[in-house]
Amino acid sequence: MVSGVARAAISDIKPGDYVGIASLPTKEGGDGALEVLIFPPALKGIGEGSYGWDLKPNSTMTNATVADAVTAVSGRTVMLSYQGRQKKIAIPEGTPVVTLAAATEADLKPGAAVFIAGEKTPGGAITARQVVVGTNGVVPPM
Q: For residue 125, what pLDDT is reported?
């Protein structure tokens, strides 16, 4: 499966949306977003949970449903619900927010930025499940 990415905004995130947010613990407590992916409705539930991520040391990826989106004087936060748990993540100004967009294998050109979700087989080979390619100047922030 090949997808592209398109720019989105924090204002595009609504309660009930399914998102993937890479984040790091903050000094103040809680987590701060490094990037936000708003999944299309057809992908709701994919990879649900919160687990270690390799974007930065100690980062996590949380794929979850937005329970509540809050804008306050102290910053922007979302409350995420997944597998009977909740996690509150602050989204600092300037955090990349994207959504998936149409793309084809023809967009996979030399020099294109890509993110590849793969699965390791028992024999050690890695099989790509999804390739997300940067198009129209938007780079996958994952």
A: 93
